[in-house]
Description:
This protein is mostly helical. It is built from four helices and no strands. The protein has helices at residues 3-29, 40-66, 76-99, 110-137. It is elongated. The two termini are 23 Å apart.
Amino acid sequence: MSVRHAMAAVAAVLLGIVGLATPAAAHVLAQPVDAYTLTAGRLWSAVAALPGLAGVVVGGLALARSAGRIGRGTGRRGAVVALAAGLACTVVGGLVVAAADGGPGTGYGIVGGYVDLVVGPIAMVLGGLALARSRRTA
C-alpha cells in the first residue's frame, strides 16, 4: 500500500467517523455540563491533539534528520507522517470549532479546537520543511 493510499484511507475513516458521530454529539452537547466533565466536544479536541503533537515531534525529528544532525537518512517518511498528522489535527480541530455553539467552559471543546488549529499547522510546516529539505539533498 502506497503512502498516498494510506493517507486517503485515513482521511476517509476520519471523515466517516465525524459524519457518523455528529448527530450523537449534538444531542450530548445540548446538556449543561460541569467544568471537569468530559463531553464529546472536549473528547474530539483532545483526540485530535494527539496526532497533532505526535506530528510536531516527528516533524521536528525529520527536519533534524534531513539536516544531517541526527542519524543518516533523509527523514522523508517522517515528513509525510508529520504532514498527515498535522492535517488530521487541523481538520478535526476546525470541525470542533465550527460545531461549537458556546464559548470556553460550555463543554463544546472550543478551546481544544483552537489548540488543534495551532498545533496542526505547526506539524504541517515542520513536515513540509523536512520534505523540501530532503528533496534538495536527495
